[in-house]
Task: structure prediction
Amino acid sequence: MDFRNYQTSLLNIKILFRLLLGFWIITISRQEAHSETGLGNWNALILKSKFSEKWSMIQENHFKSADFNLQYDYYEIKETVYYAIRSNFATALGTGLFHTCDSGTLFKPKEARNELRTWEELNFKHALNRLIFEHRGRIEQRFLSSGYQNRFRYRIGFMANLNQDPKKPSRFFLSFNNELYIPLDGIKIEKNRLFTGAGLQINHNATLTFGRLSDTIYNPAGNSRKSYLYMAVVYNLSRTHAHNTVD
Result:
């Protein structure tokens, strides 16, 4: 992640930072009444490719288990194609398959619940010194086993570069983001996803991210929250190709 590509005016950053702070206060305050289940396990392999200055793609593979073990009962495979309108503003189209089984069944197909999903996305980034902020809005079309639904998602977050010399290839960073899930059949919040973690850019191609990811589900009977130990490897295929071409 290049922390120098998304510079914008200091005044706009101050305004957006206040909006970010207010957004987090509101969503975290909604999580006060909840029941927490045990810690789960969430792993991901994310591949990035860039075809030109304007076009790029991210391919994601996620696997999770309700308990802290390797009995995975959920996976998702998705791809998103991005078009950069500006260096810090992009639009995107994506699609994915989402497969849910009963807890601890290791992808047992008999009880599977499947979903095909497509979405349209806007992504805006801006930076202040070692901080890079991101805003993401997404409209989803969900083809579920139980029927069809539309949903809006909004994510806001930031990354903080901890490296003493930003020019070094290996960078330590902190990562925080908070996302709201809002069904379009009424004004309500279905879910809030909060991630707090850190990462290491191992080299020009590979980045390791880890932290705690929590899903809070809102319903009339009371809120419930499920947290996961999240670990992901992000691999940039474009830089591998560029390096091999030069050599």
About this structure: The chain has a mean pLDDT of 82.
